[in-house]
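Session log. Operator J.P. requested a structure for one protein chain; no other inputs attached. Running the standard single-chain path with C-alpha cell output.
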Amino acid sequence: MPLSGPPRLRPALLAAGSAALLALTAAVPSAASPSAPAPAAGSVVLDWYDATARTVAAAAAPTQITNSRTWAIGWIAAARAAREAPGGSGRGRFQDAAVASAVHDALVALAPSRRADLDAALAATLGGIPDGPAEDRGVAAGARQAAAVLAERAGDGLDPASSNTPFSVPAAAPGVWQPTPDGYAPAIQYGNRLGRPFLLERADQFRPGPPPALDSRRYRADLAEVRAYGSADSSVRTPRQTETATFWYGGSLTLFTEPLRVAVARSHGSAADRASLVALFHAASVDTQIATSDGKYTYVRWRPVTAIRTGAVDPDPAWRPLHQTPAHPDYPSGHATYAGAAQTVLDALVGPVTAPFEITSPTAPGVRRTYTAWSGLTRDNVDARVWSGIHTRTADEAGVRLGEAVARHTLRNADRLLGGGGLGVQPSP
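Structure written below.
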C-alpha cells in the first residue's frame, strides 16, 4: 500500500522535490555582494536539481544505477549539510549555501569534466546569498558532507564495470532466460545485485516469491495478453496503447526526472526538506535496482519473446514484440519496480494527488502526457511493458510490490541516511 505521511509534512517535502529539479538551468557567475538580494524560496534547490540533471545527462555513465548513485550521493550530502543549519535569521542562507556547496563538490568529484559549468553555477548561487557567517558556515558544511558521503560510498560496486559483471547463461530449458532478438546481446545488470545498498541490509531482503509455474492458469493468461497486445503487428492494441508503450520505453531515471521536479517545485518546505526528498527518492531508486537484479538473476525467467517463439503454448517462431527486449530476465520488471518505489516516496512525502502536470519522453518526441497522481505513472509503466511485448503483467506487478517494499524501508530508516532531526514521517508497515 502506498505510504502516507502526516499532512503537515507534505508541503515541506514537496518543496524539496520541486526545488531540486530546476537546478539544470544555466548559471551565470555574479559578483558576491553583501547587498545582493536573497534567492527566492526554493530557487537554490531547483537550480542545483537542474545542475545535477544537466551534469548527469552530459557525463552519463552507461549504467543507470551508476547515474542514480550520482544523484543520491550529491543530494544525501546536501540534505545532511542543510539539516545542520542553526535556528535564527540566517538559517535559510546557511541551507542554500550548504545545498549548493554539497551538490557542487559531489558532482565535481563524480563528473570532473563538468567542473567549469559547476563552478560557474556555484559562483552564481553564492553571488545571490548575502555574505556573512551563515553563508560561510553553509559552504563549509556542504563541502564537509560531500567529502564524507563520497568516502562512505567508495568501492560500493555500483560502477559500470561492476554493474555489468559477466553472467553465465544457463542451458536452454523451458522458462529459463536466454539472450533475445534482435542482437541476442549478453545479459546486463547482473552485478547490481552485488553492489552495496544505501539502506537495505541485503539484496534479497524483499525478494518476491517465484513467478507462476509454466502450467498455471496465470502463466497462460500472461502469455496470451503479451502475445495479443505486445506484438509488433498487433490488431488489438489501440493507438493510445501503442503511444503509452513508446512513451514509457525510455530509461526510468530519465522518465522520472520531470515528475520529481514537479514535486520539488510545488513544495513550500525548507531547502533541507526539499533536499531530503531528492535524497530519499534516489537512495530508494538505487536500492530498488539492487533488489531488482537480485530477483531477476535468482529466477532467471525467460522473456515473452522466447516463451512465445519456443515454448509449449502455441509456439510462433515468427512472433516479434513491438519494442526490442532488454538484455536481462523478465521477473520482476525493473521499470515497474522503479515506478513502485518512486510512487511510494512521493505519496508519503508529497501526497498522492497534485494539480495536473505534463511530462515528456525521449522515446516519444512531441508527445506530452498529463497526470494528476503519482499512481498514474505506475499504472502506465505496468501497462506499457506488456504493450511493448517485453514483460508479462505478473513481472510488472511483482516489480511494483518490490519497489514499494524497498521504498517503505528507505522511509522508515531515513534518519540513518540523513542524520538526526527526523522527517516526522511514520510510514505504514
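Operator note: Residues 271-299 form the longest helix (29 residues).
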